[in-house]
Amino acid sequence: MKVPVLALTMGDPAGVGPEIVVGTLAHWGLEAEACVVGDRRVLAEAERILGVSIPWKEARFPLEGNGPFLLDLANADPKTFSFGEISPVCGQASFEYVRKAVELALSGFVDALVTAPISKEALHRASVPYIGHTEMLEALTQAKEALTMFQVGDLRVFFFTRHLPLREAIARVKQETLVHFARLVFLYLRALGMENPRVAFAALNPHAGEGGLLGREEQEEIAPAVSFLRQEGYEISGPYPADSVFFFAFQGKFDAVISLYHDQGHIATKCLDFFRTVSVTLGLPFLRTSPDHGTAFDIAGKGVARFESMYEACRIAARYAPLYAPPLEDAT
């Protein structure tokens, strides 16, 4: 069976991206081929810092033989920036790595993207019109609605809201939007090969509202959404108190949990295993994974960045890429 080809973007050249990409390749043991999109000079410096040597092969498409392959965009001269410093040169370069990797995926030359961290501020300084990876990928692929799923072990967490003030996130907890989101969750879990996934809603308030004493969103919005979805045939339950539902999902009671706001799900996954939590973007024409951390400018270039999350992102991509079948229809 043909193994999947993963396009690894180098991330912001001034961050830890080059080091965690090189560290991952130095420990590669996955049933997949790696094709890095980056700058050879920056990667060579990362190899020097880590004391390893990667046997690169020049990427010519379609790829033949065994990698690791390198597509050198030669767009980040190390003389023009310093590790750990925000730079428009690095912001532009990091965007170009993603754009090229998307082109490769849409052309069928790679099966999935694994993206190293980028800097929102560096993108802004470079006048790149996107705040982050998800916005870039949606625009470059013309995807209508991309969802973020975190995975650590077999715990999967979807985020109903993400980068919103908490007050605004709470205001969005309405039955209609919860139903629409949950349908998408089921759609994309099935796209990963799960025929009959079991999904749970995390509650918003302490003790799931304690019968309305600690908040009424569970009674007035979340529970009615669950009831409506169950009538449609979905195996969904909740809302369950957020201090226990993630534990039970990790134990295997549920295949996925819907977190209602950013920190609710992030805390659960990162406390479980900060260095092996992976972000998965679903709803694109191809699978995309990434580490759950940022550029870590404070330790960039020092040879101390841990590569486990990048490695796990590659492992999850290799696992799901052969299964991922983007749905042609939208959830209604």
Polypeptide structure, described:
The protein has helices at 17-26, 40-50, 88-106, 120-125, 133-141, 166-171, 175-191, 217-231, 245-250, 262-273, 308-320, and strands at 5-9, 33-38, 57-58, 69-72, 112-115, 147-152, 155-159, 199-202, 236-240, 256-259, 278-282, 287-291. It has a twelve-stranded mixed beta sheet, sandwiched between helices. The chain has 332 residues and is of the alpha/beta class. It starts with a strand and ends in a 12-residue tail after the last helix. The chain is globular and about 60 Å long. The model has no long low-confidence stretch (mean pLDDT 92).
Write the layout of secondary structure elements.
Layout: E1 5-9, H1 17-26, E2 33-38, H2 40-50, E3 57-58, E4 69-72, H3 88-106, E5 112-115, H4 120-125, H5 133-141, E6 147-152, E7 155-159, H6 166-171, H7 175-191, E8 199-202, H8 217-231, E9 236-240, H9 245-250, E10 256-259, H10 262-273, E11 278-282, E12 287-291, H11 308-320
Parallel strand pairs: 1-2, 1-5, 2-4, 3-4, 5-12, 7-10, 8-9, 8-10
Antiparallel strand pairs: 6-7, 6-11, 11-12
Helix pairs in contact: 1-2, 3-5, 7-8
Enzyme class: oxidoreductase
Pfam families: PdxA
Keywords: Metal-binding, NAD, Oxidoreductase
